Every structure is written in structure tokens, then in C-alpha cells.
Description:
- By secondary structure, the protein is α/β, with parallel strands linked by helices.
- Helix 1 (about 10-25) packs across helix 3.
- The chain is built from eight helices and ten strands.
- It has helices at about 10-25, 40-45, 50-75, 100-105, 125-135, 170-175, 180-190, 205-210, and strands spanning about 30-35, 80-85, 95, 110-115, 140-145, 150, 160-165, 165, 195-200, 215-220.
- It folds into two domains: about 1-135, Acetylglutamate kinase-like (Carbamate kinase, 3-Layer(aba) Sandwich), CATH 3.40.1160; about 140-220, Acetylglutamate kinase-like (Carbamate kinase, 3-Layer(aba) Sandwich), CATH 3.40.1160.
- It has a four-stranded parallel beta sheet with strand order 1-4-2-3, sandwiched between helices. It has a four-stranded mixed beta sheet with strand order 5-9-10-8.
- It starts with 9 loop residues before the first helix and ends with a strand.
- Helices cover about 40% and strands about 15% of the residues.
Amino acid sequence: MGSQGLGIDPRVVEAIALEIKEVNENGTEIGIVIGGGNIFRGLSASARGMDRVSADYMGMLATVINAMALQDYLERNDVFTRVLTAIKMEEVAEPFIRRRALRHLEKGRVVIFAAGTGNPYFTTDTAAALRAVEIEADVIIKGTKVDGVYDADPLKEPGAKKYESLTYLDVVKQRLQVMDTTAVTLCMDNKLPIIVYNLGQKGGLKALIAGENIGTIISGA
């Protein structure tokens, strides 16, 4: 949503698409799990009195809108892209089928996984961990507004300390707001590392894929 507070900022989507294009051109297979908080947050709506299940499904639909926007900007930049959704809506996207997702990745297409896990009470963080495990990803890269994991919100606390590396148990025990506990536990059980970096850092994704020490890595070590 950029700085506009709500909705989709085309400049932000364009910038993200160009970052992905650079990495895709290097031959890296990319699967993207996208959130929907810029349009609707199910948990926030539930806290204000809306039925949790209905609110979560509305949040899943918001992720489909974002997925379609990102697909549009990727394809404008000549990146072959497929959107796969956990909720069937064949008129706008393909249903998620693991073997189909793997085939798209093998063909060099960027795959966007939308609608979370397709189940209420699960976040898009958990969806990212689940899809990463299913497609046998090497790593989860989580793009955020800051350049890693801190012991406090660096946007509010100027003296916040940045972690270069953490273990899964560090994240759980210290209740660090990286990913929810379900997602972190799933990654831990499957020895899947997580790297947190600043999505707005130009060239950051390409540098990270090239092995540069960017952001914070979360692993079992």
C-alpha cells in the first residue's frame, strides 16, 4: 500500500515486480505467498466484533486481489507468472495443486500462492511456511518494512538492537514479531531457514539470493 495507508500503490507493486524479475532472470525458482493487510485484516475485524471465520475468509480474498495486481505488473515486465489459490476461483486463477505448482516453477514461471492456506485461523505466515515445505524450497525470504529482526520496533524505538541471526526457539521464547508460532514451528520441524529483510531496499533481493549478508537469518544453528 506504500504510504497511502490503504489499498494498492502501483509504484510499490512495480518496484517489487522489478526486484522479482531480476532474480527470476538469474534462474532462481520463485514462489510468493502474499498477504492482504493493505485491503482487509481478518484478525483486526474479528477483534472489533466480526465473526472470526467470516473475517478470515474476507482476508483470504484480499490476498487474491494483491496476487492479481502483482501478476499484472510482473507480466507487464515480461515475467511469466501463475496465481494459484487455496480457494477455488477458476475464472481468475488456478486452484493450488502441488504438482502443478512444481511444474510451473520448473518451467521458470513465478508462482504466486494466494488465499493463504484456505482455512480460517491460519495466517499468511503459516501459509508461507506450508507452501515452502510443499514445494521443497531452500529458504523462506520474508520482506518487511525494516532490514531484519530487532528486539523492539526500530520505527518506534531508535535504540532497538538488530539480530544478525536467531534460532527458531529464540523467536518463540522471546515472542519476537517475525512470524507466528505455528509458522516458525513448521519451519523448525522441517529445518527450513527464514531470512527477514527490507522489501523496500532496492537490489536487496538479488543481493540476498547472491549470498550477501543481508537482514536476519533464522535457523536451527
